[in-house]
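Q: I have 743 residues here and want to know how they pack in 3D. Can you give me a structure?
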Amino acid sequence: MTDTTLPPDEILDPSDAVPEEVSFEGHSFPARPTRLRPRARLRDILWQRKAKQPGTASGDNPEYVAWLESESMLADARQFARKFAGQGSMWQNPYAAPDPRAAIEKAPVWFTAYPISMITPAGATFLGTLGSTQLWDAFQQIGITAIHTGPVKRAGGVTGWDTTPSVDGHFDRISTQFDDAFGTEDEFRAMCEVATDHGGLVIDDIVPGHTGKGADFRLAEMKIGDYPGIYHMVEIPREDWHLLPKVPKGRDSANLDAETEKSLTDAGYIVGEMQRVIFFEPGVKETNWSATGAVLGPDGEEHRWVYLHYFKEGQPSLNWLDPTFAGMRLVIGDALHSLGDLGSGALRLDANGFLGVEKSATGGPAWSEGHPLSEAANQLIASMVRKVGGFTFQELNLTIDDIHSTSERGADLSYDFVNRPAYHHALAMEDAEFLRLTMRTAREMGVDTVSLVHALQNHDEMTYELVHFATLHAGDTFMFRRKPIRGADLATLIRAELTEKIAGETGTYNALFTTNGIASTLASVISASLGMADLSALTNDDVEAIKRAHLLLAMYNAWQPGVFALSGWDLVGALPVERKQVAALIRDGDTRWIHRGAYDLLDFQPNASESTSKMPKARALYGPLNVQLEDPNSFVSRLREILAVRDRHGLATAQQVDIPAVSNKAMLVLVHRLAEADQVTVLNFSAQTISGSVRSDELQPGSKVIDMVTGAPVGEVDDLHSLYVVLQPHEGRSLLVTPPVEH
């Protein structure tokens, strides 16, 4: 058996880290560092935490208040920012405009980790494992150039002197310190060093939209200093406490019902009803507002507040336009710490579409989604990150209009939530028409494919909200299946077909997730699409069919410009866990836990039944990476070939020039311009052999056509700008089209 322990020499001493020389890329501006190395600038001030003291955990105990302040993210941000102020290094990088190609040149292929789902070697942490040279050697063989760690810092809440668990998979941050369950700051720095040694980088997280109920929120409840300015929270005077709901025993807040929300709106305290209630659940979350209980402050007064939370009750929303700018300072300080001190090279912006909210002037719902303040705040964050040499990506389900708008001044890259449900639909229905429609619409509206993160599975559900069609363009007419159809009706139709095919009678192992999508792994999306109703009865032929379709979806995402991203669940071919295995986690309706089963990338613990974080191990159809890399027919070995083609020809930063019409509904054709040739991606989304002509005015007659995987000649572009192709079930081909030499 392979030795999977982490030898001591794999963990680097962060004190050995040195600044890297600035290189000159000859871009819009001359100076741009290729990598950020750990600098340890802040270790002289952190972590100066105060010890817990005996005494009451209330505002009349100065020791408790001082302890909370020492734990707060705002206090840390003040220290972080001061270390960067007045430094010449802050002016060496262009920052005004997003630069997706520069970002992709640094990191074209991402592994998106999920900390609580990774099985590590015995005694090793998540971060220690991600910093293993053994793992990075495997990633380098596959073609992976970056790791997105997912949330690894402390999350959850603070109650009294104690911390409480996360309520949303560690996306409710309460500290700039690392969660002991995932590793240490030193291990994070070492991971960044190992990544750099393998030509890669590490992508960290910041959350500009909300925190957990940690020290910052508890200090805000006590009405101390600038802390209330961090959040969208309004103090309700005692004489109006009768408007507030009672807080049940054992709880620290209560969600407002619609009637109470209206009463407080009419009284002038809050902006009221929002455009939608995310995670709506009767009796649990009926509005986006909750009320705190009475909290004693150092002033000797009790305070009650109503606060906004777009997501769960334990995730109070940040206020980007409070006069103290406390929320903004907290977020920027956190970003500087990650990039300038820890050594990460990029940041994911989570929930960054919900940074502005405004009372309606017409009596309707408050303006929150698509608010210009969100755009301004995103520009501010993204510019600051570029200023210190990093880049950002946003993981938001937006309309195409919003993706185009934010691409002009905001994050460098955006998650491709427009085409993701569309390629699932193409596979499920064996018809790529809707996928062609979404891709063409994006191109027509000015969204450059190179600015998108094309991902297989991530930690969230298979999103099918189709917000572009269901919201802003609900009344617009689209042509689909030879008939005109309104955007709203098109979204309803596509959702219904996805639900029936993927989570219907055949896919009972998948589950609907509120109104957002379907909880599923990509392997289980495929198995349901192929009509496999019993995952326990899969044959070798079934697994091969799933693998073939999985590789097809990898080709779709990898053989076009932009970032290609995949997860551990993809690499091992994970299936969903049974509901009874995560019964406690899905009790509140969050069915996403069924697709977050644990996976073991390198067979670290073959007999483990769960991860260190107690996530049950998922069944893996493809096996660990070390075994797959020795088998030329495995999923990972075939994926390596796909990524090698992408890298060899610079496809990640090419230009998409055409999405032509096709002669078979299951076929998708993409035409891309390379430096000295064209590339054509041809995909078959059906389980049958298909054939037809690939025609595009972008293809020059007389051009020679070569298969980019095998190197074999395929033919020549004829005088009708076309070539003939035959595709086996779920086959994809990447074709190099070289123009004829002019004499």
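Q: Anything worth noting?
A: The two ends are 61 Å apart (CA to CA). The chain is about 30% helix and 15% strand.
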